[in-house]
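The records we work with from here on pair a chain with its fold. These numbers are not coordinates but entries in a learned vocabulary of local backbone shapes. To see the layout at work, look at the sequence and tokens printed below:
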Amino acid sequence: MTAVDAIRRLATNQPVLVLLDQLDAMAGMVDLTSNRLNEVIEFLLRVAALSNVKVICSCREYEYERDVRFRQLSATPIYLKLPGWDQVSEKLDRHGITNSAEWTVAFREILQTPQHLTIFLEQFERTGKAKEYPSYHAMLNQLWEDSVTTLEEKDLLFQIARYSIERETTTIPRAQLDRNNDTIDMLVGKGIITKEDGKIGFRHQTLLEHAKARLFLREDYPLCQHVIARQQALFVRPTIWSVLQYHRIVDDQLYLKELNDLFASDARLHVRYLLIEFLGQVENPTQEEILIMADRLRHDLDRSRVLIATRGSKEWFVAFRSTHFPSVMQWTEGNSWLMVGVIKQAWEFARDDCLKLLLTHWVSDPEKSEYIYYAINDIDHWDNEAVQVISSTINHCENIDRIWWVEGVVYDILKELPEIAPSIFVEAIQKQLELMELDPEPESIHRYKEMPKSRDPLEWGNHWYSISDVAKASPVEFLRAVWPWFLTIADRHQRYGMSTVLHRYLGSAFYDLAETIHHNPIQAAIIHSVTLCAEQAPLDFIDIVQTGYDSESLCVHQMIALGFTTAPYSLSQYAIEYICNDRRRLFLGTVRNNFEHSNKLLNSLSTYTSDEQFARIINVILEFSQYRREVELCDSQLILDREARMRLLHSLPFERLPIEVQQLYQSETAELPKWDYEVISNRRSGQVRHIPPFSSEQLLSMPEDEIINALSIPEDEDGLGEWVEEKKEYHVKGGSISVARQLSQIAESNHAYVLELLPSILNENKEAEVAEILEGLSKSSISTTESIEFIRSLMYREIHTDFLRARLGELLRRKAEYPLGLPNDICEQLLDWLNYHWDYNDEVLRENRTDGVPESILWRSSYAAYSSHSPYCLMMALLKGCILRTTSDYDRCFQSVFQVMDFQISNPAWINFINELMTLQVPKNHNDLKVEFITLMVAKNPHFIWQPAFQQLVAKWQEALPESFLEQFVITLGSSQESKNQQAYGELLTFLKLTTEKHSWAHTLFEHILLQVKNDVNALESIAVGITFTACRMWERPKLQPHCSEILAEIIPVATPDVGTAVGTLFWYSDNFAADNSIQNVLNAMTKNPEILLGGFIPELIDAFVDLVPHMRFEILKVCELIVEHRVNDIRIIASEAYMCGPKLVSISLTLQRFDDTREQALRLFETLLQAGIDDAYNALNEIDLRPIGIKPKVEIKRRRRNIK
């Protein structure tokens, strides 16, 4: 009886759970020689197919994701994480270990790996000592010393280790050890080895690697010799790591010799990187180790790995900080980038050194501005020294794109140094403006492309969103820092509008705080600092702003007045002096708001002034004029001056005015009745909603005549009605259209009620209102019969508007259903309505090709945008009315359409109608109707030949069309000089060639054109694009794949970038790739034109490879090598589509190492990815090397397949 038979028998009586642990031990990354995994997977598949049986397997995530054989299981993955320290501590407590709180963080991390914890607890049970170990290797060493006590045990373990080294496997057949049964049983009992299925192996691979390390030392076997002989496989890596680690502990001279020998040998890149990684993790490196690493820094291929391996190490940082890091920081831009990571991870233990390195070596280099940001972004805290680095970096910057980060840094500094943040803000914005002034083409600034809409930062609305937080945190410091800059900006940008008549300050700026906070962040921050400084430190406020008294800019004086207005109780004396020294200060504000800023200032001061001060204000007002003294005023100007003085007096308490001024005020009020009118009405803008004058409940209870009256209320279309602001939008009382829309909502749930009203509403000639109501009626549950009867009631009525006719067509389009369709009289009525004159101003054809990127013509949507006044709905109602009958009436349908061809129907309406026509499966016995439609359409609308929708219809109906017509149609397309028509020619010709044998002319013409394309693809690029699109889209038909493959194999070697984009659609739209000659031809063609791999379809191409890798090793390997050669930089950049290829390229390279015929090349590919710094390559080695160093794998970005029409 087999195991499967046994499980089947058990499952007949009870549920069975099959549990299989450590599948990864049989994966190709660990076991290169046996076929065990294939056999186990076959067993699991057979067991999983049994009823009443569940299967659970464990496997490392790395092998599960990368060994393609696991895909056969179609398993539901459950990802387990390492336990947290709380869980580990709890388990230690249960075993009586109570001193774990005193252990180092490093040792705690070691014990979070279950295998390590298990060995530690077993050691504790044997010895009773809870010893803290410096490393897991030291723990294994202690385990060996305590448990492997006899010569026989050592010899047995070394025999297993030797066999593993020689055969590259993890177990040894039991038959090899028959004379050691007692020793085997002893070691099994001690938990060192396991025996199962006639094989003996170490309980865990880390124990095996430790045994190998001891074996090398015992037999004096050179590690270098062993590695060079086996370095073509990654399996050798754990051995290198464990042997070096063991040698370093027990024989430092031998360790150094092996290390130097390996570096001096022809070791592969992945081996050298492993050695560097090993050195990078050692604690307290010796002088010899430091010299070795320093030497590797001088090697171009190794230097980056040295920096990566040593970052985060205090000892290595100290070793290199003054001797090597200064020169590293002067490397070219790309290479020196790695120092960012070194500094980021050194703040905790070398803060001063990091700041010194940045200030000395990068601050003065404008090209390193971004490096400084990334390096300092993780600083533990901000102080004056750190801020100095930022300040100097800003001042040295020469490219605005390199200080895009400064805004965030200012906010970070604010949290710890609120008094310093304002000065950094000023330095930053001054630098931004300086660099913007140097750019002759502002739009070219990609990060700040929105700024140049205004060179005035006070009007910026898209940057420095939170700068008000800085102003609020330290208002005095902010105002002191910003004010001189503000005066300069105001003088530069806010001094327009000089008048030879009016005596005012120049420019304009509004400080409506509620509006400014949302739209002008920098101006809002200045406002906050002005108001808070005036309140909290009035003398500082005067000291700061008085430098602006002489400014000619209106916005400066608005800010000053705002401060005085905010704190009149402490600033009244200064404010009065300010007002009285220049009469223009009584004219602050805008014409729009009647200069309310001056009025508010006067009003606030009136409560805090003495009688003498108040009298002084009165005298200034009475002498006020808004005109220059030399101007001779006319009567209207005199009146405007009098009105302005009245508004100023009105801002003061009437009871405080002297008697004669009160009398003047009253007499002027009588003589100037419009003095308090707004000079210009306030403009309003925003989202406006028309609120119906009646609710649905009110309309349902109203008599019919009142509803008719409600539908006569004028609608406020010009915005002159009363606006009420509510929840960030304006409400205005609606009229007839609003009532109609309310009735439309009622119609959706109560169509019978509305249906009774419609005749009366139509009798009042309210077609627009009825059209609105019909929208809801179309969505209601009104039946087809009811809809038809309603339409019949309108047959003798003249319908004047396109809008109503279109909505009636929409009603019928929605309600025409099988098996009734629409009766003949209704179809005749639709034809009658279609014969009206239609307004087509709102209808446009939608562009299908954007940004110059090719898009298929025969396989794309060509719908047009149509308005609510379009005849399209009537045409569709007519179509459905004839087709959705018990017996589809194609004859009547097409005859009606032929009639419509004589009407004035817009191109967009026809385009949409043709698209719907293509969805019909017109029977072959009606082919004559297809032919007549096509020929009539060309005869009446010759320009339709160039419309993609019509070209698609010709392709769909090509079997019905006369050969002479098809040939002439294709040749006409090919004769056009427009690229889109030539592309359509290529697509249609290829389509005919692939789908039918009867058009011999198409086959001959295609072969001729294909030859021309191969000879000069640039001259016929659009045709080549068309041919490629069709070959790729027809790939979905399995029988056509060989033919499509032949075409693509001819096109791809000469493909241009646009043709390459078309090739990409093969992988965007299809996942039908068998391991056969068809895809093999395509891949081989790609190797002849590597430029095609620059296209955006590479992630989809790599996806297609995953299951094909074992079967098409050489082709896939060659394409992957070319992708890495041409796209390696893109694969490293997260913003690139190719970035998503990294994990799969690593997986493919490792999978191909399982096969002898591709192992060498695959390893080279892997090393290239490793050298390029692809995270997944490093993570793969961490897994293979059994080094739990806490590097998390990159989360794969899920991709959506393109939608297929």
